[in-house]
Write a structure and sequence with these properties.
This protein is an alpha/beta fold and 217 residues long. The chain has 6 helices and 9 strands; from the N terminus they run βββαββαααβαβαββ.
Length: 217
């Protein structure tokens, strides 16, 4: 089976600063990849290039066989640091709005997406009044809404309490069991490592290591 993502000598420059340096890697279907590294290592930049939000300066990338990731955008779900929600709307209202942008695509119902992340779909409070953990879960619900095949999750556990983080982990693990490919960044390695099939560590924009995780049953 061809790789979901294939990069070859992928580099992203901002002037003379190299955010990514000659990244060569392959990511397979139905696997969870944990991206580690210090702030500025290039983790978020790599996700944004895969999502088609940034163009590489050098090298090549293929996503679902497309040499331009934007052409595969319908199959990609991207969760950024910003929740990308309308603060004045409730979570359900946000999801109804976003569902309207996916005309012709089979989407989850807003209720099903919110149930999946442990949020009450009847809650009428605007998302601008949510706790950070609730906003993170509503953001994941937005990502899951169009049922993407590839999930790119940038710090999904940020500012979450332990119970919310576990619920988020359970949902991410469920997505993996459904055959979805998952790339996630986090500074909470101990929290996410049990989900990971592979760990990619970046340093100064380059691959420091890329190794399979050996889980003990």
């Amino acid at each position: 089976m061809p790789a979901v993502i294939q990069t070859e000598s992928l580099s992203k420059l901002y002037g003379t600063f190299a955010a990514l340096r000659k990244i060569t890697a392959s990511f397979d279907s139905g696997r969870c990849y944990l991206l580690l590294g210090e702030n500025g290592a290039g983790k978020s930049t790599l996700l944004r290039v895969i999502a088609g939000l940034l163009k590489p300066t050098h090298g090549s990338i293929r996503v679902f066989g497309e040499d331009k990731p934007a052409h595969a955008r319908d199959r990609i779900g991207y969760m950024s640091h910003a929740p990308m929600l309308y603060d004045e709307l409730s979570a359900a209202e946000n999801l109804r709005y976003f569902a309207g942008l996916y005309r012709g695509r089979p989407c989850l119902s807003p209720q099903a997406a919110l149930d999946a992340v442990g949020l009450d779909p009847t809650l009428t409070r605007p998302t601008g009044q949510y706790s950070q953990g609730m906003r993170q879960r509503a953001s994941l619900a937005r990502v899951l809404l169009p049922q993407p095949d590839l999930l790119l999750l940038d710090e999904p556990f940020s500012n979450m309490d332990a119970a919310s983080a576990r619920q988020m982990l359970d949902q991410i693990d469920h997505q993996r069991t459904q055959g979805k490919t998952i790339l996630l960044t986090t500074h909470q390695r101990d929290l996410a490592e049990p989900l990971a099939d592979f760990i990619l560590t970046l340093q100064a924009g380059a691959v420091e290591s890329f190794q399979a995780v050996q889980h003990v049953n």
